[in-house]
Amino acid sequence: MKNIRSTVVRRGGRAAISRVAQGFTLVEIVTALAVISVATFILLSLFTASYSLVLDDRQVRIALSLAEERLTDITTNPTLYEWPAFDSDDFGPVMPRNPALAPETFEAPSALPPEPKAGRRESALFSEFSWEAHARVPEPDADHIEVVVAVQWDVRGRARRFTVTSATPRTRVGDSR
Question: pTM to 2 decimals?
Answer without folding.
Answer: 0.68
